[in-house]
Amino acid sequence: MSSKPMRNIGIMAHIDAGKTTTTERILYYTGKSHRIGEVDNGEATMDWMEQEQDRGITITSAATTCYWKEHHINIIDTPGHVDFTAEVERALRVLDGAIAIFCAVGGVEPQSETVWHQADHYNIPRIAFVNKMDRLGADFFEVIKEIEGKLQANPLVLYLPIGSENDFTGIIDLIKMKELHFEINSKGSEIIESDISSDYTDSADEWREKLLDKISAYSEDITDLFLEGNDIPVKLIKETIRVNTLNRNLIPVFVGASLKNIGVQPLLDGVIDFLPSPFEGNPIIGHKKKDNSEITVPHDKKGPALGLVFKIQSDKEAGALSFIRVYSGTIKKGSAILNITKHKRERINRLLRMHSNRYESIDQLHAGDIAVVVGFKIAQTGDTIGSEGYQVLLEDMDFPEPVISVAIEPKSISDQDKLIKALESLKREDPTFTVKENEETGQLIISGMGELHLDVLVKRIISEFKVEANVGKPQVTYRESISTEALHTEKFHKLVAGKENTAEVSLKAEPAGKGAGNIIICEVSESKLPREFRDAAERGIKNAFSSGIMYGYQSIDIKVTLTDAVYDQQTSSALAFEAAGALGFDATCRKAGPVLLEPIMNVDILTPKEFVGEVISHITTRKGLIGSLESKPSVEHIKAEVPLVNMFGYSTALRSLTQGRGTFAMEFSHFAKKEGGI
């Protein structure tokens, strides 16, 4: 176990901004990898899944460990594609700091904004890296403007690029006021430091003054030295930047081109200099399991053991790998620990420190660290583990509802069990993946966040789990709701095993408002209806929400009030009241103007200027509403809202409209009334 100072960091960005390439360079320069793997040729160390290598994108967030300047760094490389938002969310939940990578050409792209706001939600300090300065159309200063404008952030430029596009040759360190050039023959390992050339002295002086001006707002010492014209010590500058990065006043900005091996080591220095250790991060808020009261969990190696399972990954040989972040105490190999969420004991057979899909065994894990447990049988993403004497639940993670589904069935009886096992394994790994049986057809329906998400999961079922299966076409997952208020009294009477079972409930159903969720209110006192019957009626209503009104889709945004009830001491039962609640819900909602709701997606399209007219015209034919059009130096950025059902096959259509140069990203926005039924 390392006793070195630690950093837990994530690398986050829009798809294709160069996250994985940057991580590969970090592993190379820290000595963890002896050669540089490339995404483009399918050899990236962190993209170890077969599909990741085929597609050239990151799907799962891989965890790795490296060491830099006597510091122990845990890195999680997260996906940039919006279909894998849950992977990003999980990673951010357990990180102390993050590197946000921006493409020097694309700037702040749609998914950059999504991930940025997710990091805001978890109060994560960040540093920024403007990558791909060697690419045609690279514009460092435009990206800085976008970070300010689109993200409402306060970027602090610490390095300037020397040249751009093909002429990008190095960077200027504005703290030391030196030029840095990265030796080609040593793959950038050797850094040549020199005085700033006359071509760049004016620009360097201007940006150095901006840097000092910005940080002087947070330090009287710097203000005094600055006004007196005295030299400001590097140590004081760095300390001021660090404090204000940790409290999220500033975003230090680095620049480079990972593919050309330029600028990665200064970025590593930035991780050490400006991002927090686990003991400087935000306090973790938990809830006592006994009474749900809030409690702050101190980061204490000597405290009671407490950790969070933030990811499950299947391994053919080891079984389920449970990625955990320990917040308090120490956990040891070979010991038993309580799964506080499920209130069951689990055994820690092995503890592994991960390096992508390779690992090394360790004996114990302390507060602040991230590693993998082998041996957990029931743990799922979001479970809290810890000691029986300190039963605190760490905040659960909320994931968006899946909006797209496909039917899947095994080709043979022998594949049936294999398919069930594969689906169970994938559900443990991915909370945004759901499995449901269609009651009418008996088919298994699997649901996910988008076409790519489901495509990846289906290919994993077939290739990784070796299941022969037939897969239907993607279908939209609708919701149901109501449009007016209605009243109904449900009388239930049934003979079960010769015994009468009776119940009577009066219900009022009304729309709860968009995004309000489902609400159940009981106006019947306990003196009129015993608690067990009241609870049973509410349970019946709650269960009925999931089976829909007219079409069998989940019901949302409905407020149901139990206004009256009648029970008979001789014949009433909890079973009867549960059934009356469910049947009453169904009947009341059918009177209340039931409506079918469809998922509407936020769609961000980037297209070269010459195709913008055709792209807008085409998206409107898919019933899209254009929200905004923004001009960038090399592309037009269109924002639209489009029904998901009209977005199937859009990537192919956009490619043909833009000669392969247009890209788009979409994420769920809201549910809206679908006209004309299914």
What does this structure look like?
α6 crosses α7 (220-227). The chain is of the alpha+beta class and 678 residues long. The N and C termini lie far apart (58 Å). β12 (284-288) and β13 (294-297) form a beta hairpin.
Highest CATH level, the class of the largest domain: Alpha Beta
Averaged pLDDT = 87
Spatial extent as radius of gyration: 28 Å
Largest sheet: 8 strands, antiparallel
Please list the strands of the largest sheet in the order they lie side by side: 18-17-23-14-15-22-19-20
Give the uncertain stretches in residue-range form.
Answer: 37-61
Q: What's the CATH topology name of the largest domain?
A: Rossmann fold
Q: Any idea how many domains? A: 5
What is the 3D form?
A: globular
Distance between the termini: 58 Å
The CATH homologous superfamily of the largest domain is called P-loop containing nucleotide triphosphate hydrolases
> What proportion of the residues form beta strands (DSSP E)?
25-35%
What portion of residues is helical?
25-40%
Helix and strand content put the structural class at: alpha+beta
CATH architecture verdict of the largest domain: 3-Layer(aba) Sandwich
| Total of DSSP H or I helical runs spanning 4+ residues | 15
Q: Got a strand count?
A: 38
